[in-house]
Write a structure and sequence with these properties.
Order of helices and strands: HHHHHH
Number of strands: 0
Largest sheet: none
Helix content: over 70%
């Protein structure tokens, strides 16, 4: 016993128990699961946004460009065919009408031709060209289809021709031909986008029989649109 009183023996510090390997594994698994769940959710949300974006673009393409463009060029084609029959006669064709128009600028066919161009054909083509210029951002691909550029150039040239006609130069004709292929192109692109729209909506056919049925139904829709334009039921046919 030491002088001045007794002292209690020193106590060792408390031991800190280390987590067992099972606990460590459980925590690690929870963290990894949470990370995987977060990544999976983010990817699902990203794909959903991408899908929605693609569908919205296709819808806008059909509504703002390809649908109205098809209606315009269909109305233009139907109107031109009607003009050929009315001005040149039931057995006339385009070549015969053009020959009659160029033979004499004051002949009845030439006068009727200029009236059709000014009142019907040019306004329709001008509307189609306007859509191409104003909504070129909705076109497919990185370049503009050459026949669309030809359509715009044809309309621009005919504005000058029309002014010359009004000034009395009725023998003037544009050297930039109307692109007759634009109707088939617009019809083909419209159908292709309708097919893509159906795929994005999940209603595309799964087999050959469904493919034929879908194609036939889509063809009927396009023909109905063209029929409405040709018969005057479409507002675009009255431009």
């Amino acid at each position: 016993m030491s002088q001045g009183g007794s002292s209690s023996p020193s106590r060792p510090p408390p031991r800190v128990s280390k987590p067992s390997s099972e606990v460590t594994k459980a925590v690690s698994l929870s963290v990894v699961t949470a990370i995987i769940g977060y990544i999976s959710t983010s990817l699902i949300q990203l794909r959903a946004r991408q899908h929605t974006g693609r569908l919205e673009r296709v819808n806008e393409q059909l509504k703002e460009l390809y649908g109205p463009l098809l209606a315009c060029v269909t109305a233009s084609k139907s109107s031109y065919d009607a003009m050929v029959r009315q001005v040149g006669g039931p057995n006339s064709d385009n070549a015969g009408l053009q020959a009659a128009v160029r033979a004499s600028s004051y002949s009845p066919p030439a006068v009727s031709y200029r009236l059709w161009v000014e009142e019907v054909l040019l306004p329709l083509s001008e509307r189609a060209a306007q859509m191409v210029v104003e909504r070129a951002d909705l076109l497919e691909g990185s370049t503009i289809e050459p026949i669309l550029l030809q359509l715009v150039a044809h309309v621009s040239a005919y504005k000058v021709i029309l002014r010359q006609w009004r000034e009395g130069n009725t023998g003037e004709h544009s050297v930039i031909k109307y692109p007759d292929e634009v109707h088939a192109w617009a019809q083909r692109e419209f159908r292709r986008l309708k097919r893509r729209q159906a795929e994005l909506l999940g209603v595309a056919p799964k087999d050959d029989r469904g493919e034929r049925s879908f194609t036939q139904k889509l063809g009927a829709e396009v023909q109905a649109l063209e029929g409405a334009v040709a018969s005057g039921r479409s507002p675009l046919s009255k431009l």
